[in-house]
Amino acid sequence: MVDQAPHPGGSTFAIEFWSDLGCPWCYLGKHRLRTAIARRPDAGRFEIRVRSFELNPAASREPETIEQAFIRTHGGTAADVLRGEQQIQAVARSEGLPFTLDRLSANTFDLHRVVQYATDQGLGFEFFSGVQDGFFSGDLDPYAPAALAAAAESAGIDGRRVREILAGDEYADRVRADRAEGLALGATGVPFVVIDRRVGAPGAQAVQVYAQLLAQVAGPVPVERAS
User: Fold this and answer.
1) Pairing, β 13-19 against β 46-52
2) Strand 64-65 and strand 104-105: pairing?
3) Start and end of every DSBA-like thioredoxin domain (predicted)?
4) Tens digit of pLDDT per residue, the chain (227 long)?
5) Distance (Å, rounded) from C-alpha 12 to C-alpha 42?
6) Beta strand 192-195 with 13-19: parallel, antiparallel or unpaired?
7) What is the three-class DSSP state of 51?
């Protein structure tokens, strides 16, 4: 990606957000990015498009505790996992975000397939964001088909189609293609944000960093609204 001059004032910008459901830094990064956008008077010019990126394609399809999943993949002890979770929880809460430690972990491939369908309906980011927020607040079980169908309906998506998709293998190729594309663009993990295919940033950046990236492609925020 090469930095260029900002587009003319009436242009719109696609923000591609590679993410995975259970990634706490994706959860934080998403809200920081949205905050940076909301602070601009031209916020309506930006469209966030969620892109699929499984952090652990080999994850168990049966839900297990965060501790079990982490230790099986990375080693360590339950105390290590709890300490890391508490540190991220403190960051999230300092930014006004709910963050329960009582979460389960499982393979997210099927969720990503539903996200691809939601994207076709023009509601991919809205659906994914709602599911992820519910997951981290402890209000939604993303591994239960009925819960995903209900979340889809809340986002304006056909819950019956969601159940059909979960029962089959539709959109599998697109999930894999999204991950491959992210890797090709330089992603080594998530979150990974690309704005207008010109600038990008790995990791959960600070709000101000996202604001600077937005300014690179869309121009600075007018002085009277910069605060």
Assistant:
1) parallel
2) antiparallel
3) 15-214
4) 434 444 555 689 999 999 999 999 999 999 999 999 999 999 999 999 999 999 999 999 999 999 999 998 889 999 999 999 999 999 999 999 999 999 999 999 999 999 999 999 999 999 999 999 999 999 999 999 999 999 999 999 999 999 999 999 999 999 999 999 999 999 999 999 999 999 999 999 999 999 999 999 999 876 555 44
5) 10
6) antiparallel
7) strand
Helix (H) or strand (E) holding 194: strand 192-195
Q: What residues does each domain of the chain span? A: 13-56+109-219
Task: Domain 13-56+109-219: give its CATH superfamily.
Answer: Glutaredoxin (3.40.30.10)
d(CA 107, CA 84): 21
Q: Look-up: residue for tokens 């890797």?
A: 183
Q: Report the distance separating Cα 101 and Cα 95, nearest Å.
A: 16
Q: By the 8 A CB rule, do 33 and 17 touch?
A: yes
- Cα-Cα-Cα-Cα torsion 53, 100, 32, 60, nearest 10 degrees, comes to 0
